[in-house]
Amino acid sequence: MIPLADRMRPQTLSEFIGNHHLLNNDKILFKAIKNNQIFSMILWGPPGVGKTSLARLIANETKSDFLEFSAVTTSIVELKKIFESKKKKDQQKPTIVFIDEIHRFNKAQQDAFLPYVENGTITLIGATTENPSFEIIGPLLSRTRIFVLNQLSKDELRVIINRAIKDKIRGLGQLNLKLNEDSLDLLLELSGGDARKGLNALEIAVSFSLQEGNGTKSKKIIIDRILIEEAYQHKALIYDKSGEEHYDAVSAYIKSMRASNVDASLYYLSRMVEAGEDPLFIARRMVIFAAEDIGLAQPTAIVVANEVFKACDVIGYPECQINLAFGTAYLAQAKKNRSAYEAYFRAVEDVKTYGNLPIPLHLRNAPTKLMKDLGYGKGYKMYPDDNKSMLPEKLKGKKYFVGGKK
């Protein structure tokens, strides 16, 4: 069954609750939608405030094709194939590409969007919980508008919850449901401005009540404070593999290892494992972390991470959780050094900026006499004593790699 939070997504702009500073009649975003003059944008705000719902509404209102992806589960190669196919077709309708958690794409991956946004193949809508100024590359920021969505107020959440209780088609209106003011206030307080969290809690509380035989479709279902508290402690609410909590949990896990906090790392690992997260998803993140964040400080880390991945692939749950725990503790305690990762992407920037600069003659291959006569390979030493530049002339003296602990 489709979760209540998904069923209750607004179907029209008039149903959208909160963030009136964006959608009042005199605001630029509202006018752009109504005039069918939509542009690429980044929606920045905390979980559960309507970023995905707004993107879907924009596509619906402007009668655009809508393609929805997550930066966590989608590769740039896959996206580029889709963009190229769109580019070749004579499109009758504009295409909106929605990327959830867009900040999880690195700089090089974000670069891949630029030509398609620039030539109008797609209209990009990115959603992020992180500050775009730090997480989105400058060229992409310059081609998009940033819209900030605020946390929902208690009064706004109250409207959403009451709508779910009364709606007989998408909500819980077919049930004889009673939620007194005290219980509703607790639900709103614990939701923390997150509509998805509040709706999930309400749905779980109703489920608990029905399981305990406290209500039926004909008999009144009473949702009290105890049921609300139990709903918020239930692991199904703590971790939703298809929603924001999935991304928040793995983000907290990586950041805890990055901070060398073993206890926090193991805690977030246990949340993912207990919720049934794919162990290979976790292990993949460990392999990436070992190369990106530990790198040269402790090269054995990537060996350990790869072995954990292999163990998870061969053994599976429940035993592989022990391998995950061992690997997590090891990576969290390891020294950190991002110098190789950062140096590589500095080099990538120059490759993108300058293209294929001429390779110095002494480094070129010289398989023929003509090439040797032209100076190819001349003066090359396998282990040179001098500091002769190996870089193209335009980049002579350039330093990408900076050692040291990060």
Structure summarized in a few sentences:
The chain has helices at residues 4-7, 20-23, 28-34, 51-61, 76-88, 107-111, 114-118, 132-135, 138-141, 154-166, 181-191, 195-211, 225-233, 235-238, 244-258, 262-274, 279-294, 300-315, 320-333, 339-354, 369-373, and strands spanning 41-44, 65-70, 95-100, 123-128, 145-148, 177-179, 221-223. It is of the alpha/beta class and 406 residues long.
Topology:
Elements: H1 4-7, H2 20-23, H3 28-34, E1 41-44, H4 51-61, E2 65-70, H5 76-88, E3 95-100, H6 107-111, H7 114-118, E4 123-128, H8 132-135, H9 138-141, E5 145-148, H10 154-166, E6 177-179, H11 181-191, H12 195-211, E7 221-223, H13 225-233, H14 235-238, H15 244-258, H16 262-274, H17 279-294, H18 300-315, H19 320-333, H20 339-354, H21 369-373
Parallel strand pairs: 1-4, 1-5, 2-3, 3-4, 6-7
Description:
By secondary structure, this protein is an alpha/beta fold. The protein has four domains: 19-148, Rossmann fold, CATH 3.40.50.300; 154-238, Helicase, Ruva Protein, domain 3 (Orthogonal Bundle); 244-333, Zinc Finger, Delta Prime, domain 3, CATH 1.20.272; 344-395, no CATH class. Helix content is 51%, strand content 8%. It contains 21 helices and seven strands. The strands form two sheets. Strands 2-3-4-1-5 form a five-stranded parallel beta sheet, covered by helices on one side. Strands 6-7 form a two-stranded parallel sheet. Helix 12 (195-211) packs across helix 13 and helix 15 runs antiparallel to helix 16 (262-274). It starts with a helix and ends in a 33-residue tail after the last helix. 31% of the residues are buried. The mean pLDDT is 88.
